[in-house]
Structure formats: C-alpha cells, structure tokens
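User: My collaborator sent over this chain with a note saying "see what the structure looks like." That's all I know about it. Can you take a look?
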Amino acid sequence: MTISVRSYLSRSAFAPVAAVFLLALCAVLLVSAPPAAAHDELTGSTPGSGSVLDAAPESVELTFSSVPAAIGSEVRVLDEDGTDWAQGSVRILDNTATQQLRTGAPAGSYTVQWRVVSSDAHPIEGTFGFTVAGGGTGTATPAPSTAAPLPPAASQSPVLNQSDDAGSPWPVIVPAAVVILAVAVLIALIVRRRLRED
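Assistant: Without extra context I'll predict from the sequence alone. Here is the result:
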C-alpha cells in the first residue's frame, strides 16, 4: 500500500516538475538568443550631406555604426562633369573611412558615391552631395578621367538609411522551435499520466 501511494505521488508530481523545468529552459533560450545581425549604417560624414564649403576639402570622411572591412571599400567624389577627384585607396581607422582627394578641384556640386563591406560581410552603399563655392587651392594635379558608375552591390540604400534586411532569421527560429517542442513534450507527458491514472 505504501509503495503504491509513493508511486502515485511520484507520478502526480512528475508532470508539474517537468513543466517547470521545460518552461525555465525555454525562458533561458529566449533570453540568451542573440539578435538578428543587421548591416552597419552610415551615421555621419565630413563634409556633411548638403553642406556648402568655401573650398574643396582635402578628404571625405565617412563614419559608420561599426567597423567596416577594408577589403572592397571604395569612395568616389564626382564633380558635375562626372570626373572622379578621389586619390588613392580608402583608409579605414576604427569605424571611419577616409578618402583623400586630388588638389585643384573646381567649384561646383559634388556627389559622393561610397561602398564598404559591412562588419556582417554584406556590401552596403549610398550617395550624398555637397557644394564647393570656391575652387581648390594648391597646384592642380593632372585631371583624372571620368569615372564609371559603381557596379551594383547586393543591396542599395541612401545615406543614413541602410538596407532593411535584418540578417539571418535562425537566431529567432531556433528558440521558437525549441519552445514548440517543449510544449509538445509537456502535453504528451500530461496525457500519458492521465491515461495511466485511468
């Protein structure tokens, strides 16, 4: 009689204990799940978008929300005729990409076309413009050739508003699947216990 009572109490307590354990496990998985990776964003630039300068700048600086990759980065600074005044390769220090410019850039409107590889390995790009009221100072370097447009990247987006792609959904799908599986196991345990009691 004592054994049967203990056996009954053990069976009766098993389902609640299992439920608490599974719910706790689900809560831990949901809390510890990493957020879906997002592309880096351009947070600022020098010169700023739409700014008017007295003279052509010596360089263009782009500041991002994270450190972009140096490989595959490209910045073009085009005048009204489509001539690219960028000189040399892009230099990246921390989360800032710097592109030096040739001397002797004329007055007028300029369009900055930039592309970098985000810290999540996806290319991002954008454009913005500024105006130079006076011509460049110093001895002019040989006029650069007219630049061809940048080839299309995986995703295009304007300055300060990068791709809406939020990255891989697996960090969300896996915990959700675990929760569903845990609930299914819990239901199966409760039904099995009730069938045994009947």
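A starting point for your reply to your collaborator: The longest strand covers residues 69-78.
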